[in-house]
Amino acid sequence: MLRGFVMIADHAVQLRLMSLTPTPIWLAHDPATLDPGLLSLRTIFEEMHIDAEWSVPDERRFRWWLKGHAQEIAVSDAIESHGMQVYTLIASTPVVSGVALNDHTIKVMAGINAQVTTLSAFTLEQDGMVRLVTRMTTHADVVSWLPRHFALVAAMQAADAELIAGGLAEMLAGTPAESAHPDAGIRPDYDDLVNIIDGLIVPHGQQPSLWKGASIAEAHEILNSISLSSMADEDGVSAEFSYGEKPSVLVMDSTLEHPRVGNGLHVVLTLPSLPFDESPYATAAVLNLLECTAAPTTDLQGGWCVVPDGTDDTVAFNAFFPNAFRQPGLATNLALWMRGKAEFAATLAAGPNRT
After folding, report:
1. Measured between alpha carbons, how far is 263 from 175 in angstroms, rounded to an integer?
2. In whole angstroms, what separates CA 185 from the centre of its chain?
3. Distance (Å, rounded) from C-alpha 190 to C-alpha 206?
4. What's the pTM value of the predicted model, to 2 decimals?
5. Of the four, 9, 60, 119, 284, which is 20 to 30 A from 254 by CA?
6. Which residue has the higher pLDDT, 263 or 15?
7. C-beta of residue 259 within 8 angstroms of C-beta of residue 265
């Protein structure tokens, strides 16, 4: 039934509790002395205004409690990629535990990633834990801006986990994955970041899409040089990438309104066929887990799901970038990230994954 749903547990988001850990170098040292990975981690910690009383810092990561759900943010050691030292950032928040691994659950998860997700994927792991996960690559060329982008995504993720855990647990017949700080115990009140979606993201989303026009043109310019073909108008851009006999198709659309956060940019990469001999639902679940541990060629901002247009014969990567995230140059990076994701999927389709 779920042959492709192999254990990919204990991926880079796992964090041991160390209540008596000395202050790590990324908090104690001068930022100018830190490598881009640790500098990114420090910037994220500071941008999110993490409360020291409700956090547990470690050598290259920290865990903190917005209230009942403990978010883990970690950065890898340096990895050589295309002649550059890069570092993988991962934010992960347990949402629901005790979820059964069966066809019904896999279908529900695919639906959630098609309709609810913005920039974190809902993953279902072998131990029955549902997590929200986002993953990005940082390096010297992006450390001036990417950690702040990541911090905003991570803040939304932590708030989402708190706000939706109860309803999602009921839907999946599980239990909210709450925990306590190892020293301070159960946090009695919410961190202020719980209000980030209604207080920051939604007000920006009430404006017309900020991605229309200049950002679409920016994405089209780079897609013209990295895709098989691309076309655009002021509202959106599409492109095709190599994938077996038929291309995968990327659509970046500024006209779609997200039901929760309002206007922004909807990004969908649709595969023409499945990369595994599995159902589309199981394939989406496996792809989300694989992207948590893949080589640093892709970023996980959004989630794999069954194609969100209503067909159910293949899968797509689905993401929504709210207006609050729009900044000059980001659309170019989105195009590059999606090209990397298309190459990742094409490699899986061409590899030994079919039986």
Report:
1. 32
2. 29
3. 26
4. 0.90
5. 284
6. 263
7. no
